[in-house]
Amino acid sequence: MWRIELKHAVNWELKMKFFVLPELPTPDIVESGVWRRAIVLDGRAVAVMAYPESERTIVVEGNFENREWEAVRRKLVEYLGLQNPEELYRFMDGDEKLRMLKNRFYGFGRAGLMSMSVFEGIAKAIIQQQISFVVAEKLAAKIVRRFGDEVEWNGLKFYGFPTQEAILKAGVEGLRECGLSRRKAELIVEIAKEENLEELKEWGEEEAYEYLTSFKGIGRWTAELVLSMALGKNVFPADDLGVRRAVSRLYFNGEIQSAEKVREIARERFGRFARDILFYLFLYDRFFSKKTELV
């Protein structure tokens, strides 16, 4: 058993709300407040589970070795957004609407990621194209169950997102059998053939954007989602309808604004914390945007 000691309070229940289908292996599973999934370390899938001991202490268990703890810890802090949020909170206090979001979702802290690997992030973004997030997660769970890593530990099953090799072995027809359209399946297989995708994290935003949009079927929305939620870049996917709804409700009395206008608001008001604020907007739109007491 290991522990992540935090300098700030975290609202674990709120963090877990980001997993909209907690009972399905997307590959994340959340049961009774306990998060779990398989993580790849040096080519080996290991079981990892995490849960709060207190609002400042996260307990971590798994079948990894002591020497692997620091690698697991780094992955969890980045993936779950457990970095110190003090600067973010101070920034949000300077804007009336952002201060409201901070207070309503206090303890959510910093933004996490939607994937443990760049390939997982690109594949998930492709799956999400032009369908609801819930439907996309159901499709992802089918793919994970059929082609992903599965680790059993302490009587529980832990799932990992399929590796590029597993997707290439599954092929287009295998993905089609999980419910993907032919074009999405073909595109994910095409991406799976690429080498050194993890290096995209070290690329500049423009360079990574150009690379992603060089694939037929990856447009601005998909590329910006990957940049923000898989690569951790401070990019704001303003073409996302949920983001446009949230910004429009907060700043324009619900009158839906264009993506360019929302992008302008992000530049002017969100600055270097645009990616963090994006997660608050997702939460606001996904779970609370109809509650009039928030505005």
From TrEMBL:
Gene Ontology MF annotations = alkylated DNA binding; DNA-3-methyladenine glycosylase activity; DNA-7-methylguanine glycosylase activity
Key words of the record: DNA damage, DNA repair
Name a GO CC annotation attached to this entry: protein-DNA complex
Which residues belong to any copy of the HhH-GPD domain? 127-283
The answer, when asked if DNA repair is one of the entry's keywords, is: yes
Query: Pfam families of this UniProt entry?
Result: AfAlkA-like_TBP-like (PF22394), HhH-GPD (PF00730)
CDD domains tied to this protein: ENDO3c
Where, if anywhere, are coiled coils annotated?
none
- Database matches in InterPro entries: AlkA-like_TBP-like, AlkA_N_sf, Alkylbase_DNA_Glycosylase/TA, DNA_glycosylase, HhH-GPD_domain, HhH_base_excis_C
Listed GO biological process terms: base-excision repair, AP site formation; DNA alkylation repair
**Official protein name in the record:** 3-methyladenine DNA glycosylase (AlkA)
Please give the organism. Archaeoglobus fulgidus
